[in-house]
Amino acid sequence: MKGALLVAGTTSDAGKSVVTAGICRWLARQGVDVAPYKAQNMSLNSFVTPQGAEIGRAQAVQAAACGLEPHADMNPILLKPGSDRRSQVVVLGSPLTDVDAMEYGALKDRLRQVALESLDRLRAAHDVVICEGAGSPAEINLRRGDIANMGLARAAGLPVVVVGDIDRGGVFAALYGTVALLEPADQEMIAGFVVNKFRGAPELLAPGLDTLRELTGRPVYGVLPWLDGLWLDVEDSLALESRDRAAAGGPPYGRQSLRVAVVRLPRISNFTDLDALACEPGVVVRFVTGPGEIADADLVVIPGSRATVPDLRWMRERGIDRAIAETAAAGGPVLGVCGGYQMLARTITDLVESGEGTVPGLGLLPATVEFAAAKTLGTPVGEAYGHRVAAYEIHHGTVTPDDGAEPFLDGCRAGGVFGTTWHGALENDDFRRAFLTEAASLAGRDFTPAPGVSFAALRERRLDALGDLVEHHLDTAALTRLLECGPPSGLPMLPPGGTMGP
């Protein structure tokens, strides 16, 4: 089998990443040499490859679904928003510049060539490449110069499967409208649809699926059922909305549970660091936005941020800083990761991200922070609690602990307040259990982590579950034909169709 296809979506968080990972795992289990690819990713959840390149976290997990090490070509362009108007542009794993939307437009021709060359290299090295789109192909305001959706599909001759999220409602209008808004040359690339996150009896969908095919001339390749807790390493903070709703509707904290409050910063990054905590039996993780939600927590976590100084100001405006200080004064525990670690220091000097100069930190750790123009990217290995810890780091802010400060991984601690720049440390099972044991003790909780929980094994089981969804609920024979033959010919065009150009 040789070929490639593009998984697009009607919206962000429609399930493109999940479906892409599922197809990758299904193909890999058939013995196919398959690789993932996303030309342009806008996400604050990123990962550092073994070669020291920064890519989207979702593509790293899709690589795991393929049985591959992640590589910069799998996500050649990564946009990391630092505000509502500006983003850092990471190209082939290294930061290039910070731009606004208009400035980014001037880079499009150069970046399109980079993206296509990465795809060419992947297709030369692997038999099949499963590409993931970005946002929606029907964002017609962004169509001219597009390098992630239909512009990519046309340039590389990729058949496109559009995923719609039925849990949001309006899935038939979204699928039909996505095709109808495209110009004819783009419509020719749309091969069919997948309905995602369905709860209920599939037969209830049959009339709608039949009508959608009559109206568009394109099949629905399958309906994927809703499965709770299926996905790890989500791409953006939209997915936190469903986590928040689930937590709000879930059971109250149990007496034997360890209650973890994670501050949901406006520019939260790498919140997937907390996935490993949430997978521990008896640990309840909630993302919070107010001081009252911290009061009954046993462990407070300040996660990473793409805007450390503005997010620190946001915490102060809401009184979250005082709630954290009260937790620390009572003995903790408080954990800061990367940007969260920087916030815990005495002072932060930032002429790079915010340009605000020197501002006071929370003052809960004996350390100072200075932002450097060069980004630190790495895959460090260390030791804590007598256990090996492998992690990765991505930051501009450099934290310098005072002489004599008690070390903690690469960072420091003061009593029950811990800080580290290392992402992914909690995925190390022995370290995670040791840290939670101390955190519970500091909080005065009767909690002992369950032995034998393997985060890596859990991720593998979930990737297998995604592969099972594809195998059992999608028309895999039709997907194979798309990979081998490309976009179907003779597809009908829907009115009105635009003329936005290649």
UniProtKB/TrEMBL annotation:
Active site: 338, 423
Pfam families named among the record's database cross-references: CbiA, GATase_3
Keyword annotations of the record: Cobalamin biosynthesis, Glutamine amidotransferase
Domain CobB/CobQ-like glutamine amidotransferase: start-end pairs: 259-430
InterPro entries: Class_I_gatase-like, CobQ/CobB/MinD/ParA_Nub-bd_dom, CobQ_GATase1, CobQ_N, CobQ_synth, GATase_3, P-loop_NTPase
Molecular-function GO term, any one: catalytic activity
Keyword Metal-binding attached: no
Pathway noted in the entry: Cofactor biosynthesis; adenosylcobalamin biosynthesis
Domain CobQ/CobB/MinD/ParA nucleotide binding residue range list: 6-230
GO BP annotations listed: cobalamin biosynthetic process
Family to which this protein belongs: Belongs to the CobB/CobQ family. CobQ subfamily.
HAMAP family the record matches: CobQ
Record function comment: Catalyzes amidations at positions B, D, E, and G on adenosylcobyrinic A,C-diamide. NH(2) groups are provided by glutamine, and one molecule of ATP is hydrogenolyzed for each amidation.
UniProt-recorded name of the protein: Cobyric acid synthase
Source lineage: Bacteria, Bacillati, Actinomycetota, Actinomycetes, Streptosporangiales
